[in-house]
Design goal:
There is one protein chain. The protein is α/β, with parallel strands linked by helices and 273 residues long. It folds into two domains: 9-167, Rossmann fold; 176-272, ProC C-terminal domain-like fold (Orthogonal Bundle). The protein contains eleven helices and eight strands. Strands 3-2-1-4-5-6-7-8 form an eight-stranded mixed beta sheet, sandwiched between helices. Helix 6 (143-154) links the parallel strand 7 (131-137) and strand 8 (157-161). The protein starts with 8 loop residues before the first strand and ends with a helix. The model has no long low-confidence stretch (mean pLDDT 93).
Length: 273
Amino acid sequence: MPPSTEKTIAVLGAGAMGGSIARGLVASHTVDAAHVLACDPSQDRLDSLALLGIQTFASAQDMLAGSLDVLVVAVKPQVLPAVLEDVADKLEDRLVISIAAGVSLETLTELVPSARLVRALPNLPVQVLSGATALCLGDTATPQDGELAVALFSCLGSAHVMREDQLDAEGAVVSCGPAYVALFADLMVRAAVEHGMTAPAAREMVLSTICGVSRQLLGSGDHPRAYMERVTSPGGTTAAGLRAMEPILFDAIERGVDAALERTGQLADKGRA
């Protein structure tokens, strides 16, 4: 997609994720700020977006009264049915991208049968153009809709189309992943402080290391295991640390992902209620 495209993108719900998508579209020069619309009940959220030149609305009905190319629905799964019911009459033959975790295309179709539907599961680093988004097209979405959705989210980081039965796993790993990585960073900093480093130095150095490793892995295409082998000397300190950490971390990650998947199922049940 060329910079400053004339497509008009509306975001319904300007919380952490919806606001990040709106900001990311502007920051990446994908969409001119004047062609990004946002609606949210919080005036503070709207004011912060308006400073970027984004058009803001307190009412979804008002936002949807005009012409737009894409509606990104970024409200919580628990309130999604009520929100869509309120604006269903405005969504006929419009491209609607839902980022609600656990809300299936089948459920979305029941709520807005006349819309062209895409499910998306982005994560928070879309705000700094380093996010990751999984996309799944509904039966009524056209190939052009899919191309547009991929183009939009690719400008916010990485975007991949996949089957709907893969989305829950992607959500539990990738969409939740920023919090997992932040937890790991926090624990690394705490360990460094407990062993004598100052907190500011430990924080900066740990975060710089995480950023650097990510850039190297993305740039080289190496498997993480191959990278580990390159920085691990036989019988050395890194090998000792990895040997102690790996079984514990593997168990913790498996339990965390399983818990996230279980919660996804619970939210999906509420969305169908």
